[in-house]
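We include the pair:
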Amino acid sequence: MRLPGIWFLAMLLGGEALKMELTDSNFKKALEGKNAFVFFQAPWCGHCRKLQPEWDQMAKLYADTPNVIIGQVDCTGSGQGFCGENQVQGYPTLKLWKDGKMSDYNGGRDFNSLKREVEKKLDPRPACSLESKDACKPEDLKVLEESEKMTKAERAAKIKAVQKEIADAKTEAAELEKKAKRLTESLDLIKAGGQTVEKVEQLLNDEDWRAHCEGRTCVVAFLPHIFDDGAAGRNEKIKVLDQILKDTKKDGKSVGFMWSQGGDQFELEEALGLQFGFPAVIAVNFGKGRFGVHRGTFDKDSVSQFLTSLSRGGTPLAPYPASAKAVKADPWDGKDGVPPVEEDL
């Protein structure tokens, strides 16, 4: 119910302004009872041609305003007398006509400046008004005629009530905008909660391995036992894998990266032919049932080259053994390994 109130205020405070060609013969009748913004120009004037698009936009904006004329005068043709009467000495010249008097306009000549001047000085009324009821939509005409029947006191009270309603609506809209902004921020956080940053995962069981690698190629590095490499050595090798992972993401590729402690998956390592020692690196695609073994050194450049070779078909691939499965392994605690205590015989 707020929209009719806003329209009601427009009717109470209340179009055909045209970019009217004013001439010596028509200007008196055209401007009678009207306010006007007048553009005095000459067809050969370059600055006039530059202003013309802004003036045409003004004419379009106020085309339905009943009490305002957006006028134009050819001072070298049909409007020479009118231009002389108004002391026009250069082009373009802009003047305001209000209450039967002409005054100079010396403001900006961009559309926003021109529009601001009309709104401030010429009191434009809405197209639907007492003087142009035929321009009214049925619902607007009803509001207008209700206002017409009011006393001055009733109209003043109604204007005050609708102004308050508009202010309340604006406040409500501002609060709703704030609420929408807060909800949008919350939505982003909710979405972010499910978008975990991919990292190099430890191979702990067959189910998680296959889930992690579903629909894509996965690289698995079988690293030296913690007793052989220590936490520092292991972290350094995982860091190499992490750097390669980040590079593949930058290139728009989806490749999974995992690691396993050498010996934890003894039967799997045997089935894949990794008896040559650790670290050992393989790439596997369960969907295609194929895997390949990296035959180079374990460093960022060499493993990256292995992946490039895979993508170009340069790495020999073999069928993935159907019986090869990962067994359950203990997650690494991030610490150096503690060798078991040997008992005295």
In short: The mean pLDDT is 89. The first strand starts at residue 19 and ends at 21. The longest helix spans residues 152-193.
